[in-house]
Amino acid sequence: MKLLVVGSGGREHAVIKKLKENPKAEKIFALPGNGGIAADAECVPIAATDIDGIVDFAVKNEIDYAVVTPDDPLVLGAVDALEAKGIPCFGPRKNAAVIEGSKVFSKNLMKKYGIPTAKYEVFSDMEAALSYLDTAPIPTVVKADGLALGKGVIIAFTREEAKAAVLSMMRDKAFGKSGDNIVIEEFLEGPEVSVLSFTDGKTIVPMVSSMDHKRAGDNDTGLNTGGMGTVAPNPYYTPAVAERCMKEIFLPTVAAMNAEGRTFKGCLYFGLMITADGPKVIEYNCRFGDPETQVVLPLLESDLLEIMLAVTEERLSGAEVRFSEKSACCVIAASAGYPQKYEKHKPLSIDESVLPHVYVAGAVKEDGVLYTNGGRVLGVTAVENTLPEAIEAAYGMMEKITFENKYCRSDIGARAMKALH
Ligand code: AMP
Ligand code: GLY
Description:
Layout: E1 2-7, H1 10-19, E2 27-32, E3 42-43, H2 51-60, E4 65-68, H3 71-76, H4 78-84, E5 89-90, H5 94-101, H6 103-113, E6 120-123, H7 126-132, E7 140-144, E8 153-156, H8 159-171, E9 182-186, E10 192-199, E11 204-206, E12 211-212, E13 215-217, E14 221-224, E15 229-232, H9 239-259, E16 266-275, E17 278-285, H10 293-296, H11 304-312, E18 327-335, E19 349-350, E20 358-360, E21 363-366, E22 369-372, E23 376-384, H12 387-398, E24 401-402, E25 406-407, H13 414-420
Parallel strand pairs: 1-2, 1-4, 2-3, 4-5
Antiparallel strand pairs: 6-9, 7-8, 7-9, 10-11, 10-16, 12-15, 13-14, 15-18, 16-17, 18-23, 18-25, 19-24, 20-23, 21-22
Bound molecules: adenosine monophosphate (AMP) and glycine.
């Protein structure tokens, strides 16, 4: 089969490495991929948001199956456009990707179908939002409706901060049209768990749970990032919590999307908070998480391509989806200064012994040499029998990767370890 994977991050690298384990995957193209992904797929410089370019390439190159992983092309309708040309895809159609593309949609969906989430109000009028904040419970959370590169969520600990967030989104258009509507919601507390799932709209199969580390600094300090590391499984996701999530959140979400005529097929990501009142949905994503994928897929013992095909062909109930009992830890190496100002184009050296465990997010290859080309440069994942062993092995491998101004958090997995004791 000739496969096409849309995207260019560490997540896409993890998907590609896993797809390659199936001998049926004769050829994999990455659009656009990156200098590190080039070791595992043929990279073609077509942007992930260039839907016409992607479709054109897929048709000309007789692609048998396409995997669309990032949020923007999914929300823009990449799957609909590929399917219209007869190319089967893994990923939700546009009318289902809205579960991530619009927070107003997802909040209203949860309210309508009784799926537990933070209490909220929606505003399209700035003055109404500002006056609501005069009496709203504090802390509160202000969210831009649309996609905002993960930056559209402000946790406000004072009324002034909350109002500043509203002004920045609605008056100053910090996120463009994504801030035309906003959600102001209840501040929830508790450990966070990421659960990715496969669903074909009939069956939903949760993958092993994971824990992201979103803040730039140790002990969860500093700015929010795209994710500085992950561990799986997440010790807060106990069998009892998992059972409640299936009954109160996962199955009702699949049913709700069907009832709305928006059947979701692909990877549905549940960002959960385990509150004193039980698990609640913080956010849905219409895709694999990054860097959750870099710990979840290395633990997948079954064949990813076969699972994806089963999702597309709506026969997931008969597919084998088995995860290892082991633990995984992924540590991200970023360019110092990320997520703000940082330097790029530093020579990147990766010892051959660790290459199979490396997922490259931001690198270019020039004349056979890899250079850094992004805030998050790469991740390295270790799979071991226990979490402490996985953490130690991941940090050990990280020492075999060098570039100028390399920055890693030193405490990936520490919070999970505390939960185990
Ligand atoms: P999101 O972009 O929706 O993933 O939100 C980013 C982060 O903000 C989440 O991972 C949570 O840590 C935090 N967050 C979002 N909504 C809430 C909430 N209602 N209460 C507390 N924290 C939240
Ligand atoms: N790691 C969170 C996300 O992919 O949105």
